[in-house]
Design brief:
The chain is of the alpha+beta class. It has helices spanning 4-12, 21-31, 134-138, 165-180, 200-209, 252-264, 280-285, 312-327; strands at residues 37-40, 46-50, 57-63, 68-74, 80-85, 97-100, 105-110, 125-128, 146-149, 154-156, 159-162, 186-192, 213-220, 239-245, 248-249, 269-273, 293-301, 308-311. The strands form two sheets. Strands 1, 2, 3, 10, 11, 12, 13, 14, 15, 16, 17 and 18 form a twelve-stranded mixed beta sheet that branches.
Length: 334
């Protein structure tokens, strides 16, 4: 089931928040042959529709955007001063290779006068693109351009590591499910924009589609690395069914629906409570007069870093669970 080449191409596409068109084009190339309709809405969400027969609508949502560093100033020596787009950790961002949409590459570092890298702050970060003057830098990069981490795709047995697994691995899972699902309902696969800066795309898409049920797919943290925060989720134990995160409390009827779908097909799953971090689930739940919304997550270590790590068995479980859910005749209801 795991289409490695597809995942790698989606991961490699440039696409920080607000600049998702390149990754949208890549995903479109994979879903279009299996869709009855494909379009981008005003915000830039990519929406692929596969018709069913029930008259009901199920929305699947996964966000395309990745975190990045936006240029806010260029000094007289050609160094780029930057700020965060999304949840960028400045300590993790020190001494990294980055790239801009136009192909310009650079490296990050920080002001070393006061302290070491472990105390680096965002205002102290800068990007060195090899320029020696402001004018030379401005010929390559403009104020407002956004850099993203340059990363490798590392295979470690059943596990992979890369930047932008958040949330491109879930985008790939939606594509995989969309290509193979036997759906009885109209399915709207929505690849959303600007999740990392406030869950902005999903709410607009949900308002327009007005689904009977939304299932978001995202990554979630784990509690299985040395001396990390307590969390029951671990790699290799299956996809998760979300109970709560900082943006949403999933209605019990939706959690029960997803758990039942998994159990009926013997799909491995684990419950998830994410204490920090939100998902598109919350934005969709609040659209219109309220939309039943749940979330299937793929456990991922080292989120918002260039080495995010996931188990492909959990990925495949997420794909299987999506397919099982959209095949069910009865959707959850209040």
């Amino acid at each position: 089931m795991f289409d490695k080449d597809m995942l790698k191409s989606i991961l490699a596409a440039y696409g920080p928040s607000g600049r998702e068109q390149t990754v949208s084009d890549v995903i479109r190339s994979y879903v279009e042959p299996f869709a009855d309709e494909v379009y981008n809405d005003t915000l830039g969400n990519l929406i692929a529709v596969k018709k069913g027969t029930s008259g009901k609508k199920v929305m699947l949502s996964a966000h395309m955007d990745q975190i990045g560093l936006i240029v806010v100033d260029i000094d007289e020596k050609g160094f780029l001063r930057v700020s965060n787009v999304g949840g960028v950790n400045p300590v993790v961002s020190v001494a990294r290779e980055v790239k801009f949409e136009n192909g310009t590459h650079g490296v990050t570092y920080f002001e070393t006068e006061k302290h070491g890298a472990k105390d680096a702050t965002m205002p102290e970060l800068f990007v060195d693109i090899g320029a020696t003057t402001r004018e030379e830098a401005e010929a390559k990069v403009q104020i407002g351009d956004v850099a993203v981490y340059v990363t490798n795709f590392v295979e470690m047995g059943s596990r992979v590591s890369s930047g932008a697994l958040d949330d491109r691995i879930a985008c790939a899972a939606v594509v995989e499910a969309f290509r193979t699902m036997q759906n009885v309902h109209d399915v709207y696969a929505v690849f959303t924009v600007q999740e990392e800066v406030g869950l902005r795309g999903a709410g607009a898409a949900a308002y327009a589609i007005e689904p009977d049920l939304n299932i978001s797919l995202d990554v979630t943290g784990t509690g299985d690395t040395p001396k990390c925060g307590r969390m029951s989720v671990k790699l290799g134990a299956g996809a998760t069914v979300k109970v709560m995160d900082s943006s949403v409390i999933v209605p019990p009827v939706v959690r029960a629906f997803l758990a039942e779908a998994a159990d009926e097909k013997n799909i491995r799953w684990q419950p998830e409570v994410l204490r920090a971090g939100g998902t598109d689930t919350g934005a969709v739940q609040r659209a219109r007069g309220g939309i039943l919304s749940g979330c299937i997550s793929i456990p991922t270590r080292y989120i918002h870093s260039p080495v995010e790590t996931a188990d492909m068995g959990d990925y495949e479980a997420a794909v299987q669970l999506v397919c099982a859910a959209v095949a069910k005749q009865e959707l959850p209801h209040r």
